[in-house]
């Protein structure tokens, strides 16, 4: 039997993970702005941000499903589903979900920082070509706020991915301390 610290730590980390993933979804879904020509720009207009949302939603759903099992395990110090299959499932599923979340973080930061750099260069070029500096500053400000907010959502997703990675390590310890499915 694993020490009481591991199930309790897993439970706390799952709760933090769920909160981070839900916060990431909320920040990303509310990220939009309107251009001067009344065109709306939403997060879903950029495919990588759709992927970020999907990874956060998958991670949140998985964490929500795992929560009752972890609450029971932390309180009762025994598995709700016995026969050794839960430690084995946790071991593989936690690793898979942590990798999915990490890929969402990579996609979100990659696109966010690269688009910001390209748009900053574009605004400098338009300014050099004689465009109105006031309207360009306004548009650049909106673009920067949009990508900053998306980067914040991705950063919060990173917190969830780190927590899930730590859970993955703890589930590895938990798997070896219980004989597991094959042991």
Comma- or semicolon-separated keywords:
183 residues, two-stranded antiparallel sheet, elongated
Q: Give a short account of the largest sheet.
A: 2 strands, antiparallel
Number of distinct beta strands = 2
| Discrete helix count | 4
Order of helices and strands: HEEHHH
Anisotropy-based shape? elongated
**Rg over CA atoms:** 21 Å
Main location: membrane
Protein name: CASP-like protein
Subunit structure: Homodimer and heterodimers.
Family: Belongs to the Casparian strip membrane proteins (CASP) family.
What is the topological layout?
Elements: H1 5-29, E1 32-34, E2 40-42, H2 47-76, H3 85-128, H4 133-177
Helix pairs in contact: 1-2, 1-4, 2-3, 2-4, 3-4
Structural description of this entry:
- Its main location: membrane.
- It is found in: Cell membrane.
- This protein is mainly alpha-helical and 183 residues long.
- The protein has one domain (8-25, 45-175).
- The protein has helices at 5-29, 47-76, 85-128, 133-177; strands spanning 32-34, 40-42.
- The longest helix has 45 residues, at 133-177.
- The chain is elongated, with a radius of gyration of 21 Å.
């Amino acid at each position: 039997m694993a020490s009481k610290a591991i199930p309790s730590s897993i439970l706390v980390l799952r709760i933090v993970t769920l909160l981070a993933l839900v916060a990431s979804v909320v920040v990303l879904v509310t990220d939009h702005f309107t251009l001067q020509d009344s065109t709306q720009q939403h997060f879903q207009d950029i495919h990588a941000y759709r992927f970020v949302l999907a990874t956060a939603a998958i991670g949140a759903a998985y964490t929500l499903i795992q929560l009752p099992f972890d609450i029971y395990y932390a309180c009762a110090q025994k598995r709700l589903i016995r026969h050794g299959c839960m430690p084995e499932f946790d071991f593989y599923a936690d690793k898979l979900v942590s990798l999915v979340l990490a890929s969402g973080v990579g996609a979100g930061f990659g696109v966010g920082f690269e688009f910001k750099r390209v748009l900053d260069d574009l605004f400098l070029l338009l300014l050099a070509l004689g465009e109105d500096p006031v309207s360009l500053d306004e548009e650049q400000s909106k673009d920067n706020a949009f990508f900053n907010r998306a980067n914040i959502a991705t950063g919060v997703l990173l917190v969830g991915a780190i927590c899930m990675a730590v859970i993955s390590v703890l589930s590895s310890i938990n798997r070896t301390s219980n004989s597991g499915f094959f042991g």
